Amino acid sequence: MFVTNTENVFHRESNFQSQIVKDTEAMVVSNLEEEVLEVESELRSTFSALSDLDCILSLAGCAADLNFIKPEIAAEEEGVIQIENGRHPLQELIVDDYIPNDTQMDSDRRMLVVTGPNYSGKSCYARQVGVLVYMLHLGSFLPCDSARVSVFDQILVAFADVESCAVPQSTFQKDLTQMAGIMRKATPKTLALVDEFGKGTAPASGIAVMTSAIQQLCKKRCRAVVTTHFLEMFSLGLLEYGKGGVKAVQMSVFVPESEDDDAVPLFKLEDGVASSSAGLVVARLAGLNKKVVNRADGIIQALRSGRQVKPLPESMNCNSPFQASVKSAIRLFLAVDGWADASDEDVELLDELVHVM
Predict the structure, then answer these.
(1) What's 142's DSSP letter?
(2) 98 and 8, same structural domain?
(3) Is 269 helix (H, G, I), strand (E, B) or coil?
(4) Looking at the structure, do residues 27 and 146 belong to the same domain, yes or no?
(5) Are 35 and 95 part of one and the same domain?
(6) Are residues 181 and 115 in the same domain?
(7) Which tens digits make up the pLDDT trace of 123-140?
(8) Quick one: 229 exposed, middle or buried, by C-beta within 10 A (0-12, 13-18, 19+)?
(9) How far apart, in whole angstroms, are the C-alpha atoms of residue 212 and residue 247?
(10) 61 pairs with which residues across the strands?
(11) Which of 100, 149, 242, 342 is the most exposed place for a label (fewest CB within 10 A)?
């Protein structure tokens, strides 16, 4: 009985000491909170200054490691972008040899319409212009040989985004919404970047809406880089080189005369309009079946010459390895609605075809 009472007393003393420790800890934390709140504004200012310093040091480190240069701000002029041998700061890190390109935009060259095949670097170039202008506004050095850029009030972008069923819009509708926002918000001090607008509908409608959008942006007198495959805008005279500040440029690609050789994208920006989108060459580079590419080439040649597109010969109409007897058995099997109620003649015929195989 004496031992039991001793254990109870020890247990109560232990609990009492634990409670004292917890109360002391709570009091210390409470006092610390009060002291921190008294200097809250100073701490927030310090954290803000440290974060700014961290960003500045990071930008300085990148500039030193990646050979960035100090740009010049053309404060006295509006919409000037003069970049010599500009490079995309992220893209050049993942390729062996990044091809730099110039950008020349001013009041007379407000709109760069970039044409060229797929895989030629059109979208990357448009992103490069936007990223370099944005970096200048952050106060960063730029990856180029020289740069003289004006101050812009905003950078508006119409690029394809990630598809999602959560957005109740089709791809073309989202493109239209983005372009409508650009036209509504653009000012003479705005930089707009538009990638492949109008490609989600019929070619005639896409060309029409793309041409109208470019003409409207020209009236806004903003600076814009537009990539497109709609070469008809120039070949049909819908857009004129040099009129309204439009400048046509192209991403050069070496296309060999022999069909057995592959085209070589040069990723270099040149003046002028691309002669074609080189769709079949790009398809071959992407690994598309040679028979599909050859058939597509035949269809294109027929359409260009106004000839009727003839169907494939029976020997080429199906690449299936099935023999004629196998095809006959498959046709018979699919022709009968239910084999549980099939006639004896159908069953016997199917049995003969199966044994012939």
Answers:
(1) B
(2) no
(3) strand
(4) no
(5) no
(6) yes
(7) 999 999 999 999 999 999
(8) buried
(9) 16
(10) none
(11) 242
CA distance 87 to 267: 12
Task: Please state, in angstroms and rounded to a whole number, the distance separating the CA atoms of residues 198 and 228.
Answer: 9
Note the pLDDT tens digit of each residue in 201-234: 888 888 999 999 999 999 999 999 999 989 889 8
Q: What is the pLDDT of residue 322?
A: 56
Q: Do 239 and 224 touch, CB atoms closer than 8 A? A: no
**Final residue of a domain: which of 61, 79, 109?**
61
> Three-state DSSP class for 190?
strand
- 101-105 sheet: strands from edge to edge: 72-73, 146-149, 81-86, 101-105
Question: What is the total count of domains within the chain?
Answer: 3
Asked whether residue 336 is assigned to any structural domain, the reply reads yes
User: CB count, 10 Å around CB of 109?
Assistant: 17
Taking the model in full, what pTM does it have? 0.73
On whether residue 303 sits in a domain, the answer given is no
Q: Is residue 234 in a domain?
A: yes
The answer to whether 200 and 171 are in contact (CB under 8 A) is: yes
Domain boundary among 26, 45, 61: 61
Same domain? 122 vs 225? yes
186 is in which domain, residue-wise? 69-288
CA-based Rg of the chain, rounded to a whole angstrom? 34
Structure tokens, 195: 């990638």
Residues 188/220, Cβ–Cβ less than 8 Å: yes
